[in-house]
Structure formats: C-alpha cells, structure tokens
Design goal:
It is found in: Membrane. By secondary structure, the protein is an all-alpha fold. The chain has 19 helices and no strands. It is globular.
C-alpha cells in the first residue's frame, strides 16, 4: 500500500506544478538544436513548423496523460499507469529506465551545460565542479522542505519565463530581418515537411519538448490531483510551445543561417550577433541561471518514481521511506548520487542516445493504454476526459510512432542497446519477485 502523506503536509499547487512542467521542458534542447536543423533545412516555414509540430505532439500527449492521471491519481507516472493497464513487469521496466537514465542523465546533462555556459562569463570556473555543487545544493533544498522546494521552483521558473519572453521581445525590436519566408512559399516548403531531414530534426525537437509529463510523477503530492493535474499538464505544455516557437522565430528572423549552422550554443551566437560579444557572454550567464530550474525540477520529480516502486516491490522498499515531511529522502539521495556519477564520468551522453528509443516507447505505450483502459474499464471514474478523443491520442501515436520507427532505422546500434537495457531490467524484476516470494527464516528469540 502507498505510504500515506503526513497529516497537514504541504501539497503542490497548480502554479508549482506548471513551474515543474515548464522547467523540465525548457532545458538544453531549445538552445542547441537549431544549429543542426539548419544544416539540411533552409526553409523558414519548415524550420518553424518543426517546433510547432513538436509542440502539437507534446500537447496531444499531455491531453492523454491528463485523463490517465485523473483516473488513476497516484505518483509514479508511466510506472503506475503501465502496471495497472498492462502488467507490473512492464511498469517496472518503465520505472527502471525513467528512474535511472530518464532522470539522472538529463539532470547531469543540464547541470553540465549550466557549467559550460557559466564558464563563458567566468572563464576560471570549473564547469564540472560548478555542476556538482549546484546539484548538491538543490538536492539539499528538496530533501529539507517540500514547501521550500516548491517555492524555489516557482521563483526560478518565473525568472526563466521572464528572461525568455524578454529576449523574444527585445530581439524582435532590434533585429535586422533575414531573407526567410515563414509562411509557406510554394509546394517545396510543404514537401520539406515529409522529407527525411524533417524527420531527423523532429527527433531532436522531441527531445527539447521532453518533460511535458513531469507533473504526473508527483500526482500523490498535488493538491486535488484529479482536478488540477490536467490543468497543469495543458497549461505548462502550451506555455512552452509558445516560448519555443517565439524563440526560434527570433533566432531565424534575426541571425543569418550561416552563423547558426552547425553551432551548439545557438543562444550565445544569436545574442552576440544582436547585442555584441559582451551581451553574448551575459546571455551565456543567463542561460546558466535558466538551467538551474531544469536541474531543480528533475531532482524534485524523479525520486517519486523510485518511491512508488519501493512501495510495490519489497526489494526496493528502503527507497520508499518518507521523512516526517513526506519527502522521499533516500530516493532523492540515490538519484543525486547517480547524477553526480554521470557528471564526473561524462559518459551519459551515449546513454541518453540509446535510451531515447525506450523512453519514447514507454510514452507511446502509455497513450495507447488510454484506449485499452476505456475498453476494459468503461465504468472507471474519469473526472477529466482527453479533449479531442480519439483524434488527439491517435495523432500522438501516429507522430510518435513515426519518430520511433525512424530512430530504430537510423540508429540500430543504439536501439539494440536500449532493448538490452530493458532485458536487464526484466531480469532484475523477476529475480526481485522471486527473492521477495521466498519464505524468510524465523527470527531467533
């Protein structure tokens, strides 16, 4: 049985939930992806449509998850949903991937990006040391007080949104327009939407939008989850969609493609072009500050998967222990240690590459589960029903399935590694179940 929350414990508000979703989504992807997209796509319309299509995929997913979260209000995200809809083994596999690679590695990636951007302002700073320090400070805040962690998340995410909105506004005012068409300009522009180059770029855009489902991992701690979770998912995802399209419009509208092409630090390049080298370095510092909220949100959300898995599986029971404030301290410490390990070894980027397939696979299976649950349990209480059903979940499955197929074809080696990760998780699940089923020796008097 799930461990009850302490009486009177602090609950996550709608505002905090939206902050977690926005902070989880707006990370390294939006500041790095465009430079690689313009290598093969030269149409302003097609480039902007990439971010619109990626946002539509995320929004359709959020609509579907909103119904599942309202119908099955418990923390754990895909682990809980897949265990209920399909089989506990499949739920364990999703939790195994999410709790290790799915949260710890992206947290490390955001922290290391933070360190590199900070170094552009203060060259003497050690990026890896700063990354570790930031992770430790944020983990300390989140294991000390849920209220303090929630307030910190709201403050730093508000700063992030204001900085990005300000950059969009100022960029539009001072930019010299580039010769790009952002409305469809003939049949060639529409044809690019079906090109292999568009499919390749959509994989990276989908990574930039990952995190739209972050709030479902905290369901048990959200105030009135059946009412508020759908709002959190939809409002958070919609806000990020607007920010992403606006940011990339400014990037393309203001800066020649030749300057962006192949560049990793797109935000730095655009700011330097618009305002000069000094402002470019300051933008690097601002992005470092923005990434603090990304690291914080993942430290906040990820341990809740381990907590719920520990509640269900005796072998992981120590990770389910809550503090007097209702915080999964051990699970948070475990994820923090894994994050620091990734930072210090710097091998997590390969892990992310092969894990991308299985992470997308589980979101696909979760949205597919919406149809299965409606068929199997038509009488289940659904305080919220997915808007546009069945079109919106079908659209998500179609676009996400297309991306999955392309990843498997383009990166067969990484896909095999991902499947191998699932195989290891499956072995751990059945070994753990067999161990927990064995009779324990009687205690001595």
């Amino acid at each position: 049985m799930p461990a009850p929350n302490p009486s009177g414990s602090y609950k996550i508000s709608v505002l905090t939930g939206i902050a977690i979703v926005v902070a989880s989504m707006v990370g390294t992807g939006v500041f790095t992806s465009l430079g690689f997209q313009v290598l093969d796509i030269k149409s302003g319309f097609a480039l902007l449509m990439l971010w619109a299509v990626g946002g539509i995929i995320a929004l359709c997913g959020a609509l579907s998850y909103g119904e599942l979260a309202a119908a099955m209000p418990r923390s754990g995200g895909e682990y809980h949903y897949l265990s209920r809809i399909y089989h506990p083994a499949l739920g364990f596999l999703s939790g195994w991937v999410s709790a290790t690679v799915g949260f710890a590695a992206p947290t490390a990636l955001a922290a290391m990006a933070l360190g590199r951007y900070a170094q552009s302002v203060w060259p003497t700073v050690s990026p890896s040391a700063l990354s570790v320090v930031v992770v430790l400070i944020l983990a300390t805040v989140h294991i000390t007080s849920r209220r303090a962690g929630s307030r910190l998340q709201v403050v730093i995410t508000t700063i992030k949104v204001l900085v990005l909105a300000g950059f969009i506004g100022v960029g539009l005012l001072v930019a010299q327009p580039q010769p790009l068409h952002f409305a469809p300009h003939g049949a060639a522009d529409w044809q690019q939407l079906l090109s292999p180059a568009f499919a390749v770029s959509l994989v990276y855009v989908s990574y930039a939008y990952s995190g739209w489902n972050a709030a479902v991992y905290l369901t048990g701690e959200v105030e009135q989850p059946q009412r508020n979770l759908p709002r959190i998912l939809l409002l958070g995802t919609s806000l990020v969609l607007l920010l992403y399209v606006g940011l990339n419009f400014v990037f393309l509208y203001s800066t020649p493609l030749s300057k962006i092409s192949g560049q990793l630090e797109v935000g730095f390049v655009v700011a330097s072009h618009l305002f000069g080298d000094t402002a470019g370095r300051l933008m690097g510092g601002a992005i470092a500050v923005l990434l603090v909220s990304t690291v914080s949100s993942m430290i906040f959300a990820g341990p809740r998967i381990l907590q719920v898995m520990g509640e269900d599986l005796p072998a992981l029971r120590p990770l389910a222990q809550l503090s007097s404030a209702g915080i999964p301290v051990r699970a948070t410490l475990f994820q923090t240690a894994l994050t620091i390990l990734f930072i210090l070894t710097a091998t997590f980027e390969q892990v992310l590459l092969y894990a991308g397939f299985v992470l997308s696979l589980f979101t696909f299976l979760t949205v597919l589960g919406l149809f299965i649950l409606r068929w199997r349990q038509p009488g289940l209480s659904r305080p919220y029903r997915a808007w546009g059903y069945p079109v919106t979940p079908l659209l998500f499955l179609l676009l996400n399935g297309w991306t999955l197929r392309f990843i498997a074809q383009r990166n067969p080696q990484e896909t095999v590694y991902g499947v191998a990760t699932l195989a290891v998780g499956l072995v751990l699940y059945f070994v753990g179940k067999r161990f927990s089923a064995q009779p324990q020796p009687a205690s001595r008097p």
